[in-house]
Write a structure and sequence with these properties.
Length: about 170
């Protein structure tokens, strides 16, 4: 129906903006934490590197997330196959960040350990955020049962498909 199309586009657009904003915050937290974890007490001496490189890292990560296809799915249907998409986006973002910093600043003063820690922290934060939304949706759906319990036995993939459609 044509009258629902503008509403659907508006809701989808707002959800994507939320996803990008959430990912931007997660990238910032992970990058800051990676510097704190790596340099601990020497962190104040490396703050300038963090501030100088953050816009590059943020842009590279967000663009990599987009090109890897992380913004195509719906979090409510997050599955194991989505994890490979996210890992691809995270690896691509880390590699492009490092390559861009090598090109722009010759990677002088930067630590490879920061980017390894950042990759792991960001993976935990991004996948954790998606899983948390999936778990919250499952919890809400279990609180309000709308049907009778049914046992489907011996149906294989076809039975799984039927259950999901119901």
């Amino acid at each position: 129906d044509r009258r629902f199309t503008p509403l659907l586009l508006r809701v989808t657009y707002k959800r994507r903006i939320f996803e990008v904003l959430l990912d931007s915050c997660l990238i910032a937290v992970a990058y800051y934490l990676s510097y704190v974890i790596r340099f601990d007490r020497d962190f104040p001496g490396h703050e300038a590197l963090l501030v100088r490189s953050f816009p590059i890292v943020l842009a590279c990560q967000l663009l990599s997330f987009f090109f890897a296809g992380m913004y195509r799915g719906v979090w409510r249907y997050f599955s194991v196959s989505d994890v490979t998409t996210y890992l691809r986006g995270l690896l691509l973002g880390t590699l492009t960040s490092v390559m861009t910093l090598v090109y722009v600043y010759r990677f002088e003063g930067y630590s490879r350990g920061v980017f390894l820690i950042n990759l792991m922290a960001l993976a935990l934060l991004v996948v954790g955020s998606r899983v948390s939304f999936r778990l919250a949706a499952d919890f809400v759906n279990r609180k309000s049962p709308t049907g009778r319990p049914v046992l489907v036995y011996g149906a294989g993939d076809g039975g799984t498909f039927v259950i999901r459609q119901l």
